[in-house]
Amino acid sequence: MLLKLNNIFKWVNSGGQRIFLLKDINLEVEEGEFISVMGPSGSGKSTLLNVIGMLDDFDEGEYNFLDEPVHKLKEKHRANLYKQYIGFVFQAYHLIDELTVYENLEMPLLYKKHSSSERKAMVADMLDRFNIVGKKDLFPTQLSGGQQQLVGVARALISKPKLILADEPTGNLNSKQGEEIMGIFNQLNEEGVTIIQVTHSEKNAAYGRRIINLLDGRRVLT
Amino acid sequence: MNIIKSYVRHLIKNKLYTAVTIIGFAISLTFILVLSVYIGNELSVDEFHINKERIYRLENESVDFSPPIAVDLKNSIPEIEAFTRALEGDGRINIAEEQKLKISYLGVDASFFDIFSFPLLKGKSDETLQTVNSIVLSKSMATKLFGSIDVVGRSVFLDTEHKFLVTGIMDDFPENTHFRYQDALLNLRAFKNLWGFENIMEEYGFASLSIYLLAKENADLPSKAPSILEKFNKDYWLYKEGWATTVEFTPLKDLYFSTKLGNGTKSNSRTLVSVLSVIVLLILLLAVGNYINLTIAQATFRGKEVAIKKLLGSSKRQLFLQFVRESVLLCLIAVLLSLLFVKLIEPVFDSLLYTRLDLNNKINLPNIAILIFLFALIGVLSGIPPAIKISDFKPIEVVKGTFRTKVKSIYGKAFITFQYIVTISLLACSWIILKQTDFLRNKDLGFQKENIVHMEYLGGAEQKNTIKDALLRIPGVQDVSLTWQSPLTGGSNQTFDYNGRSVSFQEFAVDSSFFNVFDIAIKPTGVAYSKNGVYLNETALKELGVANNVVSFKMGDEEKPILGVVNDFNYEELRDKIEPLMLRQQTAGSFADDIFLKVNGTNVFDTADKIRTTYANLVDNAEFDLVFVDDAINQWYEKDERTGKIIGYFTVLSFIISVMGILAMSTFYIQQRKKEIGIRKVNGATRTQILSLLNKDFIKWVVLAFAIAVPISWYTMHRWLEGFAYKTNMNWWIFALAGAAALLIALLTVSLQSFIAATNNPVNALREE
Predict the structure, then answer these.
(1) ipTM score for this prediction
(2) What is the pTM of this model?
(3) How near does any CA of chain A get to the CA of B309, in Å?
(4) Residue B607 falls within a domain, yes or no?
(5) Chain A positions in Cβ-Cβ contact with residue B5 (cut-off 8 Å)
(6) Which homologous superfamily does the CATH classification assign to the domain defined by A3-220?
(7) Do B304 and A108 count as a contact with CB atoms less than 8 A apart?
(8) In the predicted model, is pLDDT for residue A13 greater than 60?
(9) Nearest partner of B548 among B534, B562, B560, judged by Cα
(10) What is the extent of the structural domain holding B534?
(11) Which has the closest alpha carbon to B478: B445, B520, B535, B518?
(12) Cα distances (Å, whole numbers) of residue B465 to A168, A178, B392, B597, B619
C-alpha cells in the first residue's frame, strides 16, 4: 500500500459558515497505479492532490503514506517524506526563470546528498531520455510551452520518486504536445511509477486505469 | 555555485534595485568608515605618552597660574615627581644674515621630554633644555631654516638680538595630542630676555602660564587638591582676591576635550564628537533599514523561486542561509566600492573637520581584518530580517496561484517615517546653524571692520613714527594706527584693587589714529589732556560705579585721568557679553604689537600689495602676515560654520537615502496594487483620482514625520543657541520650509511611480490573473 486516506475532512470558515473543501474522503492507492481524478471546477480535485502531496493539511481524518501517519508528523519529517518519494508536475510548469534547463533539472538533487559527479550523470541521463540535450543551456523563457512542461516532468522525475502528482499537466499545451506528455506518463507507469493526475479532459483521463470523480468535495460515482 | 548564479542573474535583471541598494549602501558605508576613523582619532588623543596615567594639569576656573607656584608645590607635596610649566610666545627667528621667519614656541622646563613622550630626533632629553639659551627646533622648522635636521650646535637668533643654541631636534607634534603644533621649545627662563621680564620665574603677580605635574608611581595626587586650595586661599593673591576659587588636578586624557584654553593647546568639543557618533549610528540605521526594506520589497519577485525550491526539497534553513549569504555578498561589494569613495573623499573631509585622517597609515592587517569582519557582520544582520520573511513563503500558495506577499507593511512605513524625521530635523538644524553663523558674521560690532588691513608690528619702539609715515605715504592708505592689543586679540587683563574690591579690566594701548581707523566715537569728558589719560568703555564706567561726570579714578596706586568714554563695542567673540575695557595711550617708548591700516574701498587688493612691499622693506624682509580685519573676525565663527556645513552634508546624505527608501517602497506597494488599480480604472476612475489615491498613503507618513521632527529640532537648536550671547531668531517658516521640501521630494518620487501605474492599460494588470 503506497498511501491511504481515511475520512479526510477539510474546511474553511467564512463568515460564520463552514464550507467544506473535502468531505469524508476515503482512498487507497497501491504502488504502480495510474489514477485520474476528475470533476467540475471547485470540486476539490486540486485540494485533494495537495493534501496527498503533503503541501496542504487537513482538519479531520487520517493519512498514512508508506505506513507513516502523515497527520502526526512534524513539518521537517513530512518534508523529508515528500522530498524522497513524491514528484510534482504543475499546469504552470513553475520553472525558475533565472536558471538554465540544466540548472533547473539539477535543483532537486542539490537538496539530497549527491556528489557533483553523480549529479552530472543524473542530469545528463534525464536530458538524454527526453531528447533535450541541445537545450540544456537555454533559459525557460526561450522554450515553447511544450518544451517547458517537458523540463518540468523531467525535473519531477530526476530524483526517482515513487509517486508523481500531476495537476492538469497538459492544460497549457496543444493537443500534440499533450499527447507527448501523456505518452511519457504511460511509459513511466509501465516502469513502476505510481501516477495520480488531475484533469478535465476525458481523453487524458482515459490514460489512467482508475478514475475517481469528485463533486463538492465528496467522492461520487460519476 | 548554482545559488550564486541565480542571485547574480536576478541582480542583473533588476538593475534599478541592484544599483540603488549597492550604491546606497556604499555611500552610507563610506561615511561610517570616515567618521569612525575620525572619532577613533579624536578619542585616542595623547594615548602615546608613556606616563599618561600620571600626568595632570593644575587648574582653577581657567588654567593660568604663576611660575613660582610650580616650585612651591613640588617642595611641599611629596606625591609630585616632576613638573613642567608651559608658556607660549611667538616672534621671528633667523640664522645670521638670512631672512627672518615666523616662529611660534612654547617655553617649558627641562623635564618636558621626560614627562611627555614626544620623540627627539636629535639630541638627548637630559641635554636639550637645560640652559637659558637652548632651543629645540621642530623637524619642519629646522628644515625650513637650515634645509636639514643635522643642526645641533648651530646658532639662531630670536627677535633679531637674542642668540640661541640648537640643542635638539624634535619630531613635529602629531595630530593626536592636545598640544598645538609648535615650531620650537625653549627653556622658560628665556622669557627673561625675550620679554625683558627679569624676575619672571619668581613673580607671583604674573599668572598666565600652565603647570603640568607628573605624579609618582601609585601616588594619589588629586586627593591633595583640598589641602592645596586651603593654602592658596591663605597665601596666593589669585585666590585671596577671589579670581580663582577652585583647585583641581585634571588628568591628561581629559585635556583635549576641556573647554579651558591653555598655553599652546588645541581642543575639540566633546559635543561635536558625540554628535558625529550619533550621526554615524543614524546613517548605519538608515542604510541597513533601507536595505532591509528594499530587499523585502523585492521579495515578491523571488517568492516563486523560493516556493519552488521548497517544493523540490529545500529546507527552510537552507533557504534562510542562502539569503543571508546573498546579503553578505552584496554588503562586501558595497564595502569595496566604499573604500574607493573613502579615498576620494578624504581631502574634503580633512578640511571640513580641520584634521588629518591619515588613512594611508591606517592600512594594516589588523585593521583590514576588523573591517571585513565588521561589514560581514552588518551583511549578516541586515540579511536576517528579509531572509526570515522570504524563507517563510509557503509553496502551497504558489502552487495554488494564490501567492501574495503578505508582508507586514507597517514596519516599512514606520521606517519611512523615521527616515523623514531624521531628514527634516537635519534640514531645519543645518539651516538654523548657518543662519546663526551668518548673523554673527554680519552683526554690527560697534566698530568698522571693513577695509582695514592688519599686520603685526615688527619694528622697535623707536621706529614707530618712521614706519607709520612710510605707510601713510602709500596711495590708498587713509590712516594708520599702531596698537598694543586690539579688538582682534581681546586685550590684556589688568586686575587691580579699587575701593577695597578687586576689579578686572581688559586693556589696550592705542595711538590717536585708533579711533579714526575703527570709526569709534568718543564722548569727551572735558578733562584736560595728559599723557597718562585713558579712555573707558561704558561697561568699565559702570563697573567703577562712578558718576558720568567723573574726571579720574584710582587704579591701584595711580590716579588715572579719564579723557573720554567710548561706546561698548565687541572686542571678543560674540559668544560673550562685553566686558570693561580701558584704552591707554601709546607713548614714544611703549611697545606696539599691531598695525591697522584704513584703506580706500576701491582697488583694495592693489593697495594691500603695495603695503606688503613697503612694509617688507621696512622690516628687512622678515616674514609677516597681512590679513583683512573682517576676514580675521569671520575666522572666529569658523568652527560653528564648519559644524553647520557638516550637518548640511549629512542632511543631503540623509535626503538621498530617504529618497531611495521611499522610491523602493512606493514601487513595491504600487506593484502590489496593480490589480486594484486596473479594476478601478475599468470602473471609471480617472488618472488623477488614482494618482491622489496612491499619493495620499505616503503623504500621511511624511506629515507624521514632520510633526515629530519639529519639536525635536526646535529643542536641540534652542539649547545650542543658548551658548551665544547674541542669537538669531528661529523663525517658524524655517521649519515649515524644511517640511515642505521633504514633502515635495516625497511627492515627486511617489508620483513618478504612481503616474506610470495609473497610465497602464488596465487590461494588462487584469490579464495576469
Answers:
(1) 0.71
(2) 0.68
(3) 8
(4) yes
(5) 98-99, 103
(6) P-loop containing nucleotide triphosphate hydrolases (3.40.50.300)
(7) no
(8) yes
(9) B562
(10) 459-623
(11) B518
(12) 110, 113, 90, 14, 14
